[in-house]
Design goal:
Layout: E1 2-7, E2 10-16, E3 29-31, E4 34-37, H1 45-49, E5 54-62, E6 68-73, H2 81-89, E7 93-95, E8 97-99, E9 102-104, E10 106-120, E11 133-142, E12 153-156, E13 161-164, E14 170-177, E15 179-186, E16 193-199, E17 205-211, E18 235-236, H3 239-243, H4 252-255, E19 283-286, E20 289-291, E21 309-315, E22 330-335, E23 344-350, E24 353-361, E25 366-375, H5 377-384, E26 396-411, E27 415-430, H6 435-440, E28 446-460, E29 464-480, E30 486-505, E31 508-528, E32 544-567, E33 570-583, E34 586-600, E35 605-616, E36 635-648, E37 652-675, E38 681-703, E39 709-723, E40 731-732, E41 739-748, E42 753-762, E43 766-767, E44 770-776, E45 781-786, E46 792-793, E47 797-809, E48 814-822, E49 830-835, E50 842-846, E51 851-859
Parallel strand pairs: 11-17, 19-22
Antiparallel strand pairs: 1-10, 2-10, 3-8, 4-7, 5-6, 5-10, 8-9, 11-14, 12-13, 12-15, 15-16, 18-21, 19-20, 21-22, 23-24, 23-51, 24-25, 25-26, 26-27, 27-28, 28-29, 29-30, 30-31, 31-32, 32-33, 33-34, 34-35, 35-36, 36-37, 37-38, 38-39, 39-40, 39-41, 41-42, 42-47, 43-46, 44-45, 47-48, 48-51, 49-50
C-alpha cells in the first residue's frame, strides 16, 4: 500500500516593514521573531490528484504577542496551493520580535513548500495485543553550528505520528511501541533528514538530530539594513557579504572600502578617504567610542575579529547628531553580544596570521567571549628567503597582534551590563640585517592602543531606552628615523556617553544624550630644535635634543535629534549638537544644526535631502605653545545633498546621491612670523587659513543576498579641491579621484562551493610633476624642479580579485578552505615614481602585485 507523505514547513528569510504604513518609530529590531510552532497545510485535492508541487511565497504580519495578524500571498500559484498556504500560516505561533528591547509587530517574508514524497508503508500486521511502549524525545540542531532549530516538522510515518520542535528545538512523542522506527525531519532551508531510532522497553529515548543547511541557509530574520532610517545615508552590509568579498581575505571591515563615498587607498594602506576629506577628518567609533585606527600596518587586516562584529555602518556625510568632532565621515562598528547557547568557537589560519574566537556561558545570566590574532610572516619568511649577499636590499615586514574580550551580564528589569576590552599592536621588523645595517637602519617603529569599556543598557518605561557607557584607553606611537630624529607619543584618554532613545509619541522618536572626551597627549621628541628665530632659514646643522611636550584636550557634547512623521509618508529629522572644548587651556565651542528630510513618494521610491553643520577641533600637536599655535580656532564644514532610494524588482535596490561639502578655517602650516608681547619674534607655525570643497555623485546598485547570489555595483564621480593659504590657487586634494568604479559578485553552488570576483577601476590621484633639475655644488647633488602643484595624475588603477570557498559541514562542526587572489592578471599599477640621480629618467614603483592567499577556517 502506498501513501503520500506531505512535508511542508515555513521559515522567515528577511524582515521588512509594511511599505504602505507610516514608518514605525522604533529604530532597531533587537531580536528577530522565532517560529515556535508550525502547522503542516492540507494538500489541495486538485493538486494531489495531478501530482503537482509548488512553492507559495507569503507575507506574514506578526503582532507584539507573536500571533499571526494577517497573511498575504505575494505571488499566487493557483491549484488551491494559495488558500492552503494561507490557512496553515494563520496557525503559526512565534516568539515575538523585539524592537528596542521590547515586543513589537513586524512583517516577514517566507515560502511554504508543497512537496510530494512516496513512502512505502508496510501492510498492517494482524491485530495483536498491544506490546510494551516507551517515549521518545530529542533536539533538532543545525549541522556545523549546533544551533537549535524551532519549527521543524518531526514525524514517524509508519506510525502516523507527527509533531513540531519548540523554541529550544525540542520534540516529544509519548507511548511509542518499542522496536526500530524511522524519524523524518523536515525544515525549510535544510535538507530532509531520516534518522533511524531503536526504542527499548522501559527506557525513554533522547536523541540529537542534525539538519544540513541548504543553499538558503538556516532560519533567520534579516534585520540588518531594515532599521528605520533617521539619517540620509547609511550603507550597511549583511554578514555573508562581510566575509566572502574577494580581495578582502574575509575581513569584514575591509569590505566597507568597496562602497560609494570611499576613495581607493594607495598601497592598500587602509586610509579612510571619505568624500575628499583627509584621513584624520573622519572618525571610527566602536560601541559609541572613538578609536585611533581601524587597520594594522601596511594594509594589514582590521583590528577586530569578524566573530566579534554585530554591525558596520558607513555614514559618508550628514551623519547623526550623536556623533561629532569630525568634518568628514563616520564609520560605526558595534560588537556582538555574547550568547548563552553553549560553547562555540572558530579559528582561521592563512599565510599571514592566525585568529581564534571562543564563546561560552558562565551561568544562565553571564556569558563570555574572547578572540585573538597574531601574524607570523616574520617567522615564515626567513625560512624561504635565500641567504643574503653583500648589498642585498633589506626586507622589512609588519608584525601585529590584536585581542578582544567581552563579558555580558543579564540584570533584573531587563537591564544588561557589559564589560569589554580590546586592543592592537604593530611594529616593523628587519629580516635581513647585520650589525652595521641594524645600526644604519633602525626601524624602531611601533603603534598600539588598548581600550577598556563598561556599558549598561535598560529600558525606561515602555518605549525609551537608557544607554550608559564609560571607556578608558591608552595609545602609543613610536617612529625612529635614525640618530637625528625620533618621536614617541603617548595618548591617555577617557570617554563617557549617556544616551536616551525611543518613542515619545506615536509619530515622534527621540535620540538625545551627552558625551565627554578627555585626551592627555605626551610627546617625547628627539629632533633638531630651531625655535629660535635667528636660526630660521640658515644652513647651520642644528644638533638634535630631547623635547618633551604635553597637550590636554577636553570635549563636552550634548545633542538632540527628533524623528517626526509629519505625514504618513513624510519624515523630518531635525537635530542640534553643541560642543564645548578646552584645548590646551583655551575654551572653544561650536553649534551644529542639521536637518534631514525623507519622503516616501511611492512604495518603492524614497526621496531624501539634508543640510547641516559639522565642526572639528584641530589636532593636538598644532595647539602646542612652542611648535604650534594655541590660538587656533575650530574647523568648520557644511554638508548638503539630495538623493533617491529606489527598489527595482524584488531583490535589487538603487541608492543615488548628489552631495556638496564646503570646508573652511582648517589648520594649515604657515611660515608667517609674529611678534610676541615681549617684542621677540616667533613662527606662527599653523593658522586657520585652508579652505576646500568636494562634490560629486554616488551610485550603489545592490542585489541583496539570496540563496545563490549577492553583489553590487558602486560608482563615485567626485571632485575635491583645497586652497592652503589665501593667495594660493585651488588645487586637487591629495587623494582626489574623479572616477571610482567597483563591481562585486559572488555565487554559491551546491556541496559547499562559493566563488566570487571583484573588479576595481579608479582614476589616478594627483601628483606634482618634476620638469627638470639643477645641480647644487654645495651638496654635490641634483635638486628637482617641480611643475605646478598637483597638475598631473598617476595612471588609472585597475585590478581583478577572485575568491573561491569550499566548506565541509559535519554534525557539530564545519571546516572550510578558501583561496583569495588579489590582482589576478598582475596589473602593474604605479603608486609612486622613482627618478635617477639627475631626474631625467623615471621608473614606476608598482603597487600590490598578484598576491594569492590560502586559508583554512573552522567553526564549532
Amino acid at each position: 500500500m502506498t501513501a503520500w507523505l506531505l512535508a511542508a514547513t515555513a521559515h522567515a528569510q528577511e524582515a521588512r516593514r509594511d511599505a504602505s504604513a507610516p514608518p514605525a518609530p522604533a529604530p532597531v529590531v533587537t531580536r528577530a521573531p522565532e517560529l515556535i510552532e508550525a502547522v503542516a497545510p492540507e494538500y489541495p485535492a486538485e493538486a494531489l490528484a495531478a501530482k503537482l508541487e509548488a512553492t507559495v511565497p507569503i507575507e506574514i504580519d506578526i503582532d507584539a504577542t507573536g500571533s499571526v495578524a494577517a497573511v498575504r500571498v505575494a505571488a499566487p500559484v493557483g491549484h488551491g496551493f494559495d488558500e492552503a498556504a494561507v490557512a496553515a500560516a494563520k496557525q503559526y505561533k512565534f516568539r515575538p520580535a523585539e524592537i528596542d528591547g521590547k515586543p513589537g509587530a513586524i512583517t516577514i517574508e517566507t515560502s511554504i513548500h508543497f512537496r510530494l514524497e512516496t513512502v512505502t508503508v508496510p501492510e498492517p500486521a494482524p491485530a495483536v495485543p498491544a506490546g510494551p511502549e516507551t517515549s521518545l524525545s530529542g533536539t533538532v540542531r543545525e549541522r556545523g553550528t549546533r544551533k537549535k532549530l524551532a519549527g521543524a516538522s518531526v514525524g514517524i510515518p509508519a506510525l502516523g505520528e507527527e509533531t513540531s520542535t519548540d523554541a529550544d528545538g525540542r520534540f516529544h512523542f509519548d507511548r511509542l511501541p518499542v522496536g526500530s522506527h524511522q524519524l523524518v525531519i523536515v525544515l525549510t532551508g535544510h535538507d530532509r533528514a531520516v534518522e533511524p531510532v531503536t526504542l527499548v522497553d522501559g527506557r525513554p529515548a533522547d536523541v540529537d538530530v542534525y539538519l544540513k543547511p541548504t543553499l538558503a541557509g538556516t532560519y533567520e530574520t534579516t534585520v540588518q539594513g531594515e532599521r528605520e532610517k533617521l539619517e540620509v545615508t547609511r550603507r550597511s552590509l549583511e554578514r555573508r557579504e562581510l566575509t566572502t568579498v574577494p580581495g578582502t581575505f574575509g575581513d569584514p571591515l575591509r569590505v566597507i572600502q568597496n562602497l560609494p563615498g570611499l576613495a581607493r587607498s594607495p598601497w592598500a594602506s587602509g586610509l579612510l578617504l571619505i568624500r575628499g576629506s583627509n584621513p584624520n577628518d573622519s572618525g571610527v567609533f566602536v560601541d559609541g567610542h572613538w578609536i585611533p585606527l581601524l587597520y594594522h600596518f601596511l594594509g594589514g587586516p582590521s583590528i577586530l575579529n569578524a566573530e566579534f562584529l554585530d554591525s558596520i555602518d558607513l555614514y559618508p556625510g550628514g551623519y547623526p547628531a550623536r556623533f561629532g568632532r569630525y568634518s568628514g565621515g563616520i564609520i560605526e562598528v558595534n560588537t556582538r553580544p555574547t550568547a548563552s547557547d553553549g560553547f562555540h568557537g572558530s579559528a582561521k589560519i592563512d599565510l599571514l596570521d592566525t585568529g581564534v574566537y571562543l564563546r561560552a556561558p558562565i551561568t544562565d545570566d553571564v556569558t563570555f567571549a574572547a578572540a585573538g590574532r597574531r601574524s607570523y610572516i616574520d617567522a615564515i619568511l626567513p625560512l624561504v628567503l635565500p641567504k643574503p649577499d653583500p648589498g642585498d636590499t633589506l626586507v622589512v615586514v609588519p608584525v601585529y597582534w590584536d585581542y578582544q574580550a567581552r563579558l555580558d551580564v543579564a540584570l533584573p528589569d531587563r537591564g544588561k551590563l557589559t564589560l569589554s576590552a580590546f586592543g592592537s599592536d604593530d611594529k616593523l621588523e628587519i629580516l635581513r640585517s647585520t650589525a652595521e645595517t641594524a645600526a644604519e637602519f633602525d626601524l624602531d617603529t611601533h603603534i598600539g592602543f588598548h581600550r577598556l569599556r563598561i556599558g549598561y543598557v535598560r529600558p525606561i518605561g515602555p518605549t525609551l531606552k537608557l544607554t550608559l557607557s564609560q571607556i578608558f584607553g591608552i595609545d602609543e606611537l613610536r617612529l625612529n628615523a635614525g640618530d637625528q630624529t625620533a618621536t614617541e607619543l603617548t595618548n591617555k584618554s577617557a570617554g563617557t556617553r549617556v544616551r536616551v532613545s525611543g518613542d515619545v509619541a506615536e509619530d515622534l522618536t527621540l535620540d538625545t544624550g551627552l558625551d565627554l572626551d578627555y585626551r592627555d597627549t605626551f610627546y617625547d621628541l628627539h629632533i633638531a630644535n630651531n625655535r629660535d628665530f635667528h636660526q630660521l632659514g640658515t644652513q647651520v646643522d642644528i644638533p638634535p635634543e630631547l623635547i618633551q611636550r604635553t597637550i590636554d584636550v577636553y570635549g563636552l557634547g550634548a545633542y538632540l535629534e527628533l524623528g517626526w512623521a509629519v505625514l504618513p509618508r513624510l519624515r523630518l529629522i531635525p537635530s542640534l549638537r553643541f560642543d564645548s572644548y578646552l584645548l590646551n587651556g583655551k575654551v572653544r565651542s561650536s553649534f551644529d544644526p542639521r536637518m534631514v528630510v525623507r519622503w516616501k513618494a511611492t512604495d518603492d521610491t524614497t526621496l531624501k535631502a539634508y543640510v547641516g553643520m559639522f565642526h572639528e577641533p584641530p589636532s593636538p600637536e598644532t595647539l602646542d605653545a612652542v611648535y604650534g599655535n594655541t590660538n587656533l580656532g575650530i574647523q568648520s564644514a557644511l554638508h548638503s545633498g539630495v538623493g533617491v532610494e529606489q527598489k527595482v524588482g524584488k531583490r535589487v535596490t538603487l541608492d543615488a546621491e548628489l552631495y556638496y561639502n564646503w570646508r573652511w578655517d582648517f589648520a594649515t602650516f604657515t611660515d608667517e612670523v609674529v611678534r610676541r608681547d615681549d617684542g621677540t619674534l616667533r613662527r606662527l607655525n599653523f593658522d586657520n587659513l585652508a579652505v576646500g570643497s568636494s562634490y560629486g555623485l554616488e551610485i550603489l546598485i545592490k542585489h541583496e543576498v539570496t540563496d545563490r547570489f549577492y553583489g553590487w555595483i558602486s560608482y563615485t564621480l567626485s571632485r575635491s579641491v583645497v586652497r592652503r593659504i589665501p593667495d594660493d590657487p585651488l588645487v586637487p586634494q591629495a587623494f582626489d579621484q574623479t572616477h571610482n568604479f567597483i563591481g562585486v559578485a559572488s555565487w554559491r553552488f551546491a556541496d559547499g562551493w562559493e566563488a566570487g570576483l571583484r573588479f576595481r577601476l579608479t582614476t589616478g590621484r594627483p601628483i606634482t610633476p618634476v620638469i627638470g633639475a639643477t645641480f647644487n655644488a654645495d651638496t654635490n647633488a641634483f635638486t628637482p624642479v617641480n611643475g605646478d602643484s598637483r597638475s598631473a595624475r598617476r595612471d588609472t588603477f585597475h585590478e581583478l580579485d577572485v575568491r573561491i570557498d569550499k566548506t565541509w559541514t559535519f554534525d557539530t562542526w564545519q571546516i572550510g578552505v578558501y583561496v583569495d587572489v588579489i590582482n589576478v592578471y598582475n596589473a602593474e599599477n604605479a603608486e609612486a615614481t622613482q627618478y635617477d640621480y639627475r631626474f631625467q629618467h623615471t621608473a614606476p614603483v608598482r603597487g600590490v602585485p598578484i598576491v594569492p592567499t590560502l586559508g583554512v577556517k573552522g567553526q564549532w
